């Protein structure tokens, strides 16, 4: 007698080990569990002779023609690709490298050390697990993640693992300063005063997601991260040298190649919503690989874990005209994230639910 595959049972067994995907690799598996196998995408081809822009932020603090050119570059990249990379962003190279190393060190700790942080309680400020949507998504992603709420109310230092504690706080302070610069440029790109997006608290909250993608024995059957867009205002991504990040552009996947010292910036769903589609939150994914581990750090500017924040966000009134009516209904950040998390990474944009 052939018994049906007990998917939920397998998910629970995997989850209860609290050792994540790294634990599977350490156990020496040569075949990935069925719940990691992804459905094949249709109609999307890899490789297109298009490059994601790399923007030099050197002139960001000036009031000159150089800054105006910089604003124009940010505007074009944010509308066309929703993605760009930045260099000369003010964060020392040694800080970037130390942040990546801290993430790697934590994920390669003994299982008993990591288990203390493993949880699915989203109310905690430090949450380590494998796949936030493990029980909702059609297929699991080949990665482990630590989610840290760093602003407006950061955890006490003792809540973070020792090996990445100090660098996480240090790196976050740099990211906050960079966020102010980026939101000023994006405000001007929308034709608004530089402080506009900061004044409506787009950069008030900051969450840090550290991702660890172990080498996969069958990378052609799964992905590191499913196709998705980010449920925030803006994402600042630090990636290592392995690569695998791809952006969907004109129904083709294009690579976002690692540039040592650069940071990847992408528009989030909420920024597309309030800009009334002037800025684009574009779907992207991360391929699984056999040479890893791949390490990345994604900083999400969003306020959804701040329970006192009930601000409604809708298309910015200054951008609305008779020929450019509002495309979205208003929502709180919290409600947007609740919907996003409830549906999981199912390949569908959460923005569709909020369209008028």
UniProtKB/TrEMBL annotation:
GO molecular function: dioxygenase activity; metal ion binding
Keyword Cytoplasm belongs to the record: no
Keywords, in A-Z order: Iron, Metal-binding, Oxidoreductase
Top-level taxonomic group: Eukaryota
Database matches in PANTHER family: OS03G0690500 PROTEIN, OXIDOREDUCTASE, 2OG-FE II OXYGENASE FAMILY PROTEIN
Gene3D superfamilies: B-lactam Antibiotic, Isopenicillin N Synthase, Chain
Organism: Carex littledalei
Family of this protein: Belongs to the iron/ascorbate-dependent oxidoreductase family.
PROSITE patterns reported in the protein's UniProt record: FE2OG_OXY
Name assigned to this protein: 1-aminocyclopropane-1-carboxylate oxidase 1-like protein
Residues covered by the Fe2OG dioxygenase domain: 204-304
Pfam short name (any one): 2OG-FeII_Oxy
SUPFAM superfamilies: Clavaminate synthase-like
